[in-house]
Design a protein that fits this description.
This protein is α/β, with parallel strands linked by helices. It is built from six helices and 13 strands. The structure holds zinc ion. The site of zinc ion has 5 residues, from loops.
């Protein structure tokens, strides 16, 4: 009898935990769903930013395509579905033009899968990327043909692309890309336009992240294209930096006030 009561108690506990998880999951899904979906977010869009730069949006992901005399440059394939959609758009808008170079902004698998459909001649990534890829299943990541470290200026088909190494910020393989002739900067998982980041930006080292934003803000440019949601202007990146700094300041003030042990 005693054994039966223990089993019943355990079963009740498990049911309540599972029930609680289902409730939490439902709540989280409800909260997250409108963030990732909505008008201007769902679906795909191929857009011309200026004579040299185009952008392709696949749901909440966005990349850039640079038109050069030697062929196209794509920064971040993201995933197989997005790359397949981009390939169709490229064939339609630039018939016969090949992807000369594919660049990975950082090693994260949601930015680096699906590149093979683009059939690029060259693939560039930060030299530490394989260290992280080799620790996980990285099927679908097209292998780089060239690894870079530190700031690297790429001259492809008459277009200067400045790959700015951002140190430990959002991983330690992160690059931002400055195209001076177009007064444009592309960032991956660093800054958004009039939007908050999911979960405060995963895989983020706050001091390095803020330093990276400040480094980009010090550049003279006009158009800001982040890897998620809408693109905008340099002012949008400044606003975003200010919001992150203010959030950090408020969180610090609250922790100090509540006297959390071990935090000063
Ligand atoms: Zn990332």
């Amino acid at each position: 009898m005693k054994k039966l009561i223990i089993i019943l108690m355990a079963a009740t506990a498990i049911t309540s935990i599972v029930g609680c998880n289902a409730f939490v999951l439902k709540t989280v899904t409800k909260t997250v769903d409108p963030y990732f979906h909505g008008p201007g977010i769902d679906g795909t869009k191929f857009e011309k930013i200026n004579e040299t730069i185009y952008t392709y949006r696949w749901n909440w992901y966005r990349n850039v395509i640079i038109v050069t005399e030697e062929g196209l440059v794509v920064i971040d394939p993201m995933n197989a579905e997005m790359s397949a959609g981009l390939k169709k758009a490229l064939d339609q808008h630039f018939p016969g033009q090949k992807v000369h170079t594919l660049i990975y902004s950082h090693y994260h698998l949601d930015h680096t899968r699906g590149g093979s459909v683009l059939a690029p001649t060259h693939v560039i990534a930060h030299e530490k990327s394989p260290t992280y890829w080799n620790a996980v299943n990285h099927d679908g990541v097209l292998e780089p043909t060239r690894y870079i470290a530190g700031d690297t200026t790429l001259n492809i088909g008459g277009v200067e692309i400045r790959a700015l190494y951002l140190g430990l910020s959002h991983t330690d393989t992160l690059y931002a890309f400055h195209i001076p002739s177009e007064r444009l900067v592309f960032t991956a998982d660093l800054g958004l336009v009039k939007a908050v980041a999911p979960n405060g930006v995963p895989d983020r080292y706050a001091p390095g992240y803020l330093a990276a934003m400040n480094r980009i803000i010090a550049i003279d440019f006009d158009t800001f294209v982040p890897s998620h949601f809408a693109y905008g202007t340099k002012k949008d990146l400044i606003d975003w930096r200010d919001m992150m700094e203010e959030s950090r300041r408020l969180a610090y003030a609250i922790v100090q006030k509540s006297g959390t042990p071990g935090v000063h």
